[in-house]
Amino acid sequence: MHIHKYEKIWLTFGIGCLVVFLTVVGVSAFASGQQPPSCLTTIDPEKVDTTPPFNQPGLVKKGNNEYELNIVVAAFSFTPNAIEIPKGAKVTINVTSKDVIHGFEIPGTNINMMVEPGYINSLTTTFDQPGEYTILCNEYCGAGHHMMTARMKVVD
Ligand code: CUA
């Protein structure tokens, strides 16, 4: 069977692209451990106050230098709204909303989550810079949206 020269070039190019693509996806998924956001953890938004861990919001020590920070978000507040975190600790932040969609952003860091009622959004991070941070809502959620903030202190 005769294959035209241009056809061979395009076939090689196409298969080459496929190999590169699958390698990139494979390495990032299996070697680097990257995965889609955990948007499938659900919660009844009307029972947030009685569902662990959100029935006792705040910082919980989970291990040696490892913490969990559970925050309940509702119009127009974060609970707790003054948080202290040890510098260099591994912190998993869990957030959920009791009413509408809110945002959870800490300017100056790469932390930015959407807070949806019915879902628990999480991320794990480490704060290496001591200082005061502001947590703010960046999704328009009503009349008090512009006042919806909390303070976080990273301490030595
Ligand atoms: Cu909550 Cu904007």
TrEMBL record:
InterPro entries: Ba3_CcO_II_C, CcO_II-like_C, Copper_CuA, Cupredoxin, NosZ/Cyto_c_oxidase_sub2
Pfam families for this protein: COX2 (PF00116)
Gene3D superfamilies: Cupredoxins - blue copper proteins (2.60.40.420)
CDD domains given in the database record: ba3_CcO_II_C
UniProt KW keywords: Copper, Membrane, Metal-binding, Transmembrane, Transmembrane helix
PROSITE patterns xref list: COX2, COX2_CUA
Transmembrane segments annotated in the record for this chain: 9-31
The reaction(s) this protein catalyses: 4 Fe(II)-[cytochrome c] + O2 + 8 H(+)(in) = 4 Fe(III)-[cytochrome c] + 2 H2O + 4 H(+)(out)
KW Transit peptide (keyword) present: no
GO molecular function: copper ion binding; cytochrome-c oxidase activity
Cellular component terms (Gene Ontology): cell envelope; membrane
Domain Cytochrome oxidase subunit II copper A binding per the UniProt entry, residue ranges: 55-156
Subcellular locations according to the entry: Cell envelope
PANTHER family: CYTOCHROME C OXIDASE SUBUNIT II (PTHR42838), NITROUS-OXIDE REDUCTASE (PTHR42838:SF2)
Cited function: Subunits I and II form the functional core of the enzyme complex. Electrons originating in cytochrome c are transferred via heme a and Cu(A) to the binuclear center formed by heme a3 and Cu(B).
Protein name (database record): Cytochrome aa3 subunit 2
